[in-house]
Structure formats: structure tokens, C-alpha cells
Amino acid sequence: MKSKTTQIMPVIWIVIFTILFLVIVGRFLYIQVSGEVSGVSIQELADEKRTNNYNIPASRGTIYDRKGMALAQEHVVYRLYAVIDESHTANYVKDVDKTAQKLAPILEMEESEVAERLNKGISNEKFQVEFGSNARELNQEQKEEIEALELPGINFIEEPIRFYPNGMFASHTIGLTDKQDDKIVGINGVEGFVNDLLTGKDGSISYQRDQFNMKLLDPKEVINEPDNGDDVYLTVDQKIQTLMEDALSEVQEEYEPDRMSAVVMDAKTGEILALSNRPSYNPNNIGEVDNWYNDVIATPFEPGSTMKIFTLASAIEEGVWNPEEQYKSGKYKAEDNVQTIGDHNGRQGWGTISYLEGIQRSSNVAAAKLAYEKIGPDKFLEYLQAFDFDKKTGIDLPGEVSGRILYNWVSEKVTTAFGQGTTTTPIQMMKAATAIANDGKMLKPYIIDRTLDHDTQEVLAENQPEVVGEPISEETARETLKVLESVITSENGTGHEIYNLNDYTVAGKTGTANFVDTETGKYKIGRESYTFSFMGMAPADDPELIMYVSVKEPTLDSTESGSAPVSFVFKNVMENSLRYLNIEPDKEAKEPIEVVEIPEWEGKQTDSYVNKLKDLGIAPIVIGDGEQIKKVNLQPGTKITSRQTVFVATDNMKMPDLTGWSFRDVLSFRDFLDLDLEWTGNGYVKKQSIEKGSSFNEKDYLMVELEEPDVPEEQEATSDESDDEENEEEQ
């Protein structure tokens, strides 16, 4: 029995091992033939393990002004890190104390803080450490300064950020971006509105490597080029916008208003040439922001007497306007059970006057009687709707909010005629005003001019002027302009003298509107408790530009009217913008201005050329002390006046003293020599990074520090406005 068992068991084990062997061999054969294990391709897995894959980030598109000046662009900055693990590389931090001592002043950190981060990383056996926000977004100058120290283990990573070359410049319009999952994403303004266009599609690169991370001889490299974001050109003009920013900054410094808004539009196309608000912010250094809203499009308010422009136009179009017809000013009661409204001079009025004089004096009674008695409330509502005061303008910016026509009760139908109760936004006012300035044709406002492919510069889309309504006829528009011009030229006009331009006639209307105190829920009272505004068009007979300015609650001297800060902005921006656009003056200048031509400068000696310019009445800014002229910022034959700045660069350029230069002159200097300019502050140059007299080249980096001029404690009264200036409008 035992012998039989002994004979069988080896046979059984042989059979078992044979089966196992066949199974294993069969498995190997299957794997070899199929190339798969558990449904996974061995070849693909091997390729994946020995293949490096890298992302090639796409560049975000650039936002330009109408003439190609970059307003928002991708900018390379650097993040600093320190390698501290000596077992992985020979290039590591060898002396913690020395490294901390050298880095601390550049990073604006304490030595102890830098050393603590290094030592903590070493004790925790980290491969590398970073140094927080102070070591991020370093510029090229800081990077080069650190590299010059030649500190072992100190390295940099390139990172893209969104950079705004002009700082606090149309910031509400251009918008902001945010980093989300290492991607730059637009969150408001144009950045947010066309984020999909500006955002590109990342590319990739892959290749096979050996165990030492070196490319194989046949790496099977695959490159997918990134699809960069599209470039966007705005209708904004950098020079007109700069004029506006400078004027608003000066008013903000002197009058400390609660809010300000201003916008300039091309009357013939609807293009926004400049738009700004205060408070504002510098998108490169946000800090504490008091106002995120683009008030021009997103903050409806009661406009006050600027609404009388459209009451007047409606009356003319309806055929009920008789400028010589007389009415009793002072007070008006539309119905027995309706509250009495009054004129802004304490309801005293000016006796029995003509409707023309009533509009010139900004009489609430004149506007109310025109709307309620002459036009009729139902018909007047149709005109308000024809001017699109009940809808958004459709401007290509995010966050637009429409005002509201308040028109339920008789009192509301009366007060709407002079801009109380009913609300609107400045951009709605501008849109409606295009019908006055453009022969009755109302234009849609827009701020994006065209979109281009970043790489090929092919035009992908382009906006064109769009007529969106004709609320009045050409004859009505021209008659309205004549009446509005008399608001400025007539001695009775509330805009007399204070809104006059030197070289151009103006058609416009002042406004002084109440606003509701958020704490009490009632209209705020007080001499300064108004939103002062002005809507102006120039030249008056055929306007090229329309401008709206509003200033809320300015701090006024006892001798100043609320129109003082408004007129400062309007006159500075409108006059200079018309000149800059080479629009022919339509009235004689008070003082003749001599026009001269820039003489030929190529191949000329510096001294003789400069003397020739001086003989022509031009005081050029000479850059350097070279004997030969290298370049001039104006071409020979260009006609200029003595007011214009002429830069003359010699063949040995040296930095001029920029102290006291205006921001506009600094920008012109930058454009002339293509400098890499950065700045801080506002106003006029206080400090410069390249010292006066130092040699420099085109495209060099220049940093300037700007400072607002000191404002004397006692300001001389600048207003020569008449006592009839509207200082109050009653609900």
C-alpha cells in the first residue's frame, strides 16, 4: 500500500508543476503577442514612463488704445526660491547667514526672517524653500541685482502677470485680472468682457528620455504650438484719456469730492475716446479700493437740469416750442392736488420771461410747463423712450445698469422734465446727446474698436458706427444746438463764461441735482450737497466731441460755485482734445498763435539746429551733448505752435533733469525713445532712477516718482459765474 502511494505522488506533483508551467508560459506568450497586461498596453506604459511632457503657456492678448499704445499686457516677473538639499545637487545654499544678509535688503525683509525660512527648510529636510510675497513678482532690475550677488542655490522661476503700463489710467474701463489655477482670468472691465478672446490655448511639448532624464537620440519629440490670445484695440485715445485723468486728479486733490465721472465721445461715431471715474485705483498695486463700479455705466442717479436738453428737443420736435412766448417763472403747480415745484433761486423766479430765457436760466418751471402743458405727459414719455432712457445702451462693457423713468404720478411726470425723480446713467445721457449733435441720428456707444489675431495681426472683428434711433429730426437737432449755445453765450445763461472755450464755441447745459442721503433716506441738503454736472458739445454748430462731467459733493470755498470743479475738467479736456484732434477752431483766438514748421534736422549740427529752433520761438529739450542730431520727435515740415514740446536727441544722449515734468511730457519722452517706463504716484516728477547727466540708450529702463503739487491753503476764487448760477433744484 505504501509502495503504491509512493509511486502515485510524484506523478501528481509532475502533473501539477506541468500545468503551472504551461499556465505561466502561456501567460508570457499571451503578453508577448498581445502586448497588454490587464488591458493596459505595455508599450504605451513604457513610453509614458520615459516620456517628458511640458506645458507651453499661451500669451494673453494685449489691450491697446486706438493708436496702438499698450494699456494692458502680459509682463514677465520672477519668483525667487532657494535650493537647500545638498544631496540632490551641488548648487545649494552653503552659507545661510551670508545668504540672508545679502537677500534681505533687496527683498525688503529682515535678515532673521530670511534665515529662519532657510533653517526651517533644512531642518524639515526640504529640497527648496520660498520667501513669501516679498520674493514674488520681482522685476528685471531686482533679478539682476540678486544675480550679481552670485549666491549659491538661489534661483528664479519666470511667471507671467498682467501689467498696466499707465497705472491708474481708465482702470474701471480696462479692468482687472486674477490668477485662477495658474491662469490669468479677466474679472471686470474689458478684461472680463472679452476674456475668452484674450485667453489663449496652451500648447505642449513631449519627448522620450533615458533614466538620467536626457533626450534619446530619437526622442520622438512632439510640439503643439500654443494659440495665443487675440489682441483688442479700444476706441480710447491715450492722450485724451491722460488729459482727463490729470484734470480729475487735480480736482480730487483740491476739492475732495465724494464721486466724479467724466466721458468724452466722438459725436459722429459713438466711439468712447476717454472715460474715467473717481475714486479709482492702480491695477498694478490695488491696495484699498473705495469704488469698484464704473459709475459712467453702472451707477444711475438723478441727472438734474442736463435732462432739460431732451425736454427742449422734444418740445421743438413736437412743434410747441416758441422761444419768444412768455410765462410766469418762480413757482408752478400742475394740478390742484400736486406739490408745487419752484425755480432754483428760492422759488422767486425772474418774473414774466420768455421760454428761451427760461432755458438759459435753467428754469424748472419752464421745463415743467413745456413737458406737462405743451407736449403733454403721455407724448413726453414717448420722447423719453425714443431717447432710450428706459433701456441700457448696450455698450461693450460689463456691468451696465439702466436708469429708471419714474412716471407713475403727476408729480413724477412734472419733475422728470427737469431731471428729478427719474434716474439715468452718464452713458445713457451721452447716447441720447448724439441725436442732438448728429442731425437727429442717435448712435450706439462703443469702446472696442477691433480684435486682431496676436500672431498674424489679421483683423478678426471690427466695430462700426451704428445708428439705433432717430428720436428727432435734423432741423430739431440744429435748433436745439442753437438754444444750448445761448446757455453759454447769453449773459442770462447758467453756463455763461465759466464753460466758454478760447477757440471753440460750446453748446451745453449745466446741472445741479439733489441726491438721497443713504442714512436718512431723504434728499441731502446743504450748499455742497449736490451732484454738479455739465453736458457740452463742441464746436457748437456741428459738434465733433460730446463731453459729460459730474462732481458729487465737492468741498467749496465760500466764494466758489459748484460749477468750478466741473468747468475745470471740461475746459481743460475739451479745449485740448479739440486741438489735439486738429479740429478747426470756429471762433477767433483771443491771442494770435504763431504756427511754424519744423526745419530739416538730418545731418545737422546740434548747436546750429537748436539756435534755429529758438529763432522760431521754440525752446527744445536737448537730450545729451553730442555734436550731431540723432533724431527729433517731429518730422521736418510738421506745423506746430510754441506750446508743443520738441525733443532733440543728440549722438551722445544723456538723461535730462525730469524734475517738475508733467506726466504727459514723461509719456511723450517715453514714446520718443521707446523707454521701458514705470512710475508711482500722480502729478509731476519728483525723482528719477537715471540720474541727470547720466548716459543712457533707447529702450532703457526708467522709473519715475510722481507727486501732486502742493495746494495753497487759500485759493483765489476762479469763478466769474453770475449769481443766477443754479445752486438748488427742488423736488
TrEMBL record:
Residues 592-650 form the PASTA domain. Residues 706-731 are annotated as: Disordered. One of its GO terms (cellular component) is plasma membrane. It catalyses: Preferential cleavage: (Ac)2-L-Lys-D-Ala-|-D-Ala. Also transpeptidation of peptidyl-alanyl moieties that are N-acyl substituents of D-alanine. Pathway: Cell wall biogenesis; peptidoglycan biosynthesis. It is an enzyme of class 3 (hydrolase). Its EC number is 3.4.16.4. The keyword Membrane applies. SUPFAM superfamilies: beta-lactamase/transpeptidase-like, Penicillin binding protein dimerisation domain, Penicillin-binding protein 2x (pbp-2x), c-terminal domain. Keywords: Membrane, Transmembrane, Transmembrane helix. It is found in: Membrane. The chain crosses the membrane at residues 12-30. One of its GO terms (biological process) is peptidoglycan biosynthetic process. This is serine-type D-Ala-D-Ala carboxypeptidase. The lineage of its organism: Bacteria, Bacillati, Bacillota, Bacilli, Bacillales.
